[in-house]
Amino acid sequence: MAAMSVDLTDPVSPRTRLIVLSFCAVAVAGLTICERLLGPKISLASLFFLPLLVAAAFVPRWMIFLLAIALVLEREIFGPFAFDQSAPVRISLSLVAFTGAALFAGELVRNGRIMRRMREEAMARSDAEGEARALVESSPAAVLTVDSEGKIARANEAARRLLGFAHGSPEGESIETYIPLLAKLLRSKPTIRVMRTVVEASGHLRNGETFYAHIWVSLYVGRSGPRLAAIISDVTEQLRDREESGLRQLLSSSRIIAGAVSHEIRNLAAAASVLYQNLNNCAGVRDNADFGALGSVIESVLKLSSQDLEDDSEEVLEGVDVAELLQELRTIISPTFDEAGAGLAWGIGASLPHVRADHSGLLQVFINLAQNSCRALKGRPEGQLRISADRLTGESVIIRFTDNGPGISGADRMFQPLQSGASSTGFGLFISRAIIRTFGGELQHTQQPGECCFVVELPTVMSQESASA
User: Fold this and answer.
1) d(C-alpha 155, C-alpha 166), whole Å
2) Using only C-alpha atoms, what is the Rg of the chain?
3) C-beta separation of 260 from 418 below 8 A
4) What is the pLDDT of residue 205?
5) What is residue 457's predicted lDDT score, i.e. its pLDDT?
6) First CA to last CA across the chain, in angstroms?
7) Lowest-confidence segment of 94-98, 231-235, 333-337, 453-457 by average pLDDT
8) Structural domain includes residue 29
9) Within a 10 A sphere around the Cβ of 66, how many other Cβ atoms?
10) Distance CA 106, CA 88 (A)
11) For residues 223 and 221, what is the distance between their CA atoms, to the nearest angstrom?
12) Has residue 206 been placed in a domain?
């Protein structure tokens, strides 16, 4: 009874198979005893089919043959029939009958399991496809697929809006009309082997306007050929903000560099002016035409270098989250330090207030300081840069860049421009300090044996608001 209550359409476990075979063996033994007691005149052969058919539903095909042979031999050995001339015929007929019926019953159950599994898989696939369609259609990200002919096969609501379709859909139209790069990727055989990638590309709206996008592309091969799926993010505004921020930073750095160069030229021109005045007192030189022209040139250079570069823009500095900025710095500089074989340690205080600074300018300063340390630590055993940020008082935040490098020679002139021993132009630290000072902060350097430290002090947004009030 316990075996018959098992769902025949479920996959068979070893435990279930053992239980079923045990009950079938008990049933066969009971039928054999009854048949022996009743004698050869009353045959119970038809009842022996029942345990065999039940067992056939839970065992593989090869075992059905073994069970049929075992059942026939068991009836011949323990049954009421004498082993005479009719025994071979009886054994053959019984074996064919038991085997055929058991195989037929086993195939019926097996096919039922297969059909049920197929229905369940079809239902699961249908549910998954429905969920995927609902997810894609409701997604705020633009998602579209392109068939092997380069036409848009499916586009969700966000993709239709992105391409400028207030009504209707771009489905069936060529992707090359909207995003030419995707059509190029689809046609490129070497690219198809890449399968997944991220690209930046420009596209065209339905009305012809241009937009800029980051696109996550997945290329795969369908029955009709290569196909493409893309998730598109419109980054036109981010690109515009990034370029404008970069331009402002470039102008600010250029103004600082120009001021430094003007300062150096002014010093040289002043020295040349002193020498000119000294030579002017010498007889015979004063009346020389070239000497007079030289005086005019020196005077012009003095006037030119004395013009201060005014910053007409009144930039409103918003608060910058130092902890978040340092996490961004970590992402940027970690690969460089790994390549240099130098370590990085971080000590960022909790609940740091926002500081008054420009995000891109402050990040530029931090990258410059970190790269200077990386160059000093390259190839140095156990070289390490520690970057820490703490709240000094209620009015300022201190960020320290401390490395165990060899230090800086000529530390008294490190913040002056046009350093002779600098790795490039000698403007890095000069510009970094100038940028920090435009934020109302300060960049300082401390050095002791085995340690070189740059300290950035920045005012908090709260202190600036208090000072303005």
Assistant:
1) 13
2) 43
3) yes
4) 87
5) 92
6) 90
7) 94-98
8) yes
9) 10
10) 26
11) 7
12) yes
What is the domain extent for residue 75?
14-124
Q: What sections of 39-82 are H helices per DSSP?
A: 45-56, 61-78
Taking a C-beta distance cutoff of 8 angstroms, is the pair 217, 128 a contact? no
Give the Cα separation of 66 and 8 in Å (integer).
21
Asked whether residue 273 is domain-assigned, the answer is yes
Q: Do 323 and 436 reside in the same domain of the chain?
A: yes
Contact indicator for 194, 208 with CB cutoff of 8 Å: no
User: Are residues 326 and 296 part of one domain?
Assistant: no
- The total number of structural domains in the chain stands at 4
The H or E element containing residue 442 is: strand 442-448
How far is 414 from 452, CA to CA, in rounded Å? Answer: 13
Q: Both 23 and 117 in a single domain?
A: yes
Residues 205 and 273 occupy one common structural domain: no
Across the chain, mean pLDDT equals: 78
In this structure, the answer to whether residues 326 and 429 fall within a common structural domain is: yes
pLDDT given at position 241: 67
Report pLDDT for 397: 92
Could you tell me the pLDDT band of residue 3, with boundaries at 50, 70 and 90? Answer: very low
Dig out the tokens for 329 from the structure: 């710095």
Q: Which amino acid is at 79?
A: G
Q: How confident is the model at residue 345 (pLDDT cuts 50, 70, 90)?
A: very high
Q: Identify whether residues 301 and 428 lie together within a single domain.
A: no
If asked whether residues 407 and 431 sit together in one domain, one would say: yes
Report pLDDT digits (tens) over 179-193.
988 888 888 766 555
Q: CA-CA distance, 212 to 240, in Å (whole number)?
A: 10
Q: Please answer whether residues 239 and 202 qualify as being in contact, where contact means their C-beta atoms are separated by less than 8 angstroms.
A: no
- Are the CB atoms for 229 and 221 separated by under 8 Å? no
Residue 353 has pLDDT above 50, yes or no: yes
Angle at 275 between CA 272 and CA 280, to 5 degrees: 125
CA atoms within 13 A on the CB side of 351: 2
